[in-house]
Design goal:
The chain is an alpha/beta fold. The chain has four helices and twelve strands. Helix content is 22%, strand content 26%.
């Protein structure tokens, strides 16, 4: 069954606590973010912490997923490169890109990885719709795409399209970590140092590149509304996400 056919709400079991919704100020060190996610995932499985959606921005860097190919790191000395431990290939993170690390207990929801990925795509698509942007999923590749009618069609005759959001997840004992990245206003030239997600015949775009004068707080509001529609209640918190982040 295609992901588009299984996309649906991924709600928790009745009586579950609201997901913590944490917006981290400033730029978050990537190694610290990995440590926080590992710790929080263990705490969720152990029952000592609620689920968490953690919104961050990173300084410019590249991450390698478990499927990354060496030849897809075009400029290895351009930015720091991190082994992420998530699924997928190479991706870029940097200022102007909203990264959301999603630590959810799938045992309280649905033990179905494909349905979870479809739900993440649905979350992004609903978020983009708040800005009148039509995000689309592709069954042969993960992420969310937008058509570009302003550009010539591809060599195979398919419409030109760009990737606007990436997805990369990892599960440990049915607790998720890593998550999604939406391009709000990053420096798109930074993507040229890699082959993003191993896709060579498509480009990348952002909301601002599409001509939308949106801000990160605008996107955060849309993300929260769409998240609650797909994943259930989220309560915003101001305390640190387990430890101080630089």
């Amino acid at each position: 069954m295609q992901r588009s056919q299984i996309a649906a709400a991924f709600l928790p079991s009745p009586g579950s606590d609201a997901v913590e919704w944490r917006i981290e100020p400033g730029l978050t060190d990537y190694a610290t973010a990995l440590a926080v996610m590992e710790e929080r995932a263990d705490a969720i499985r152990g029952g000592s912490a609620p689920e968490l959606a953690w919104l961050v921005e990173h300084p410019p860097l590249y991450t390698a997923g478990t499927g990354a190919k060496a030849q897809d790191l075009v400029e290895p000395d351009r930015f720091p490169v991190f082994a992420a431990g998530r699924g997928g290939e190479y991706t870029y993170h940097g200022p102007g890109q909203r990264v959301v690390y999603v630590m959810l207990d799938l045992k309280r929801r649905r033990e179905d990885v494909r349905a979870f990925v479809a739900a993440l795509e649905e979350w992004i698509i609903r978020t983009l719709a708040a800005f009148n942007v039509t995000g689309e999923r592709r069954e042969d590749r993960v992420g969310v795409w937008v058509q570009r009618p302003d550009r010539p069609a591809a060599a195979d005759g398919s419409p030109a399209e760009d990737k606007i959001a990436a997805i990369g997840i990892r599960l440990r004992r049915w607790v998720s970590f890593h998550g999604i990245a939406i391009n709000v206003e990053p420096d798109l030239s930074h993507f040229s140092g890699i082959v993003p997600c191993g896709v060579t015949d498509r480009g990348v775009t952002s909301l601002v590149d599409l001509g939308l004068p949106v801000t990160m707080p605008d996107v955060d509001l849309a993300l929260k509304s769409a998240f609650e529609a797909v994943f259930g209640p989220a309560g915003e918190v101001t305390k640190p996400a387990l430890r101080k982040v630089g």
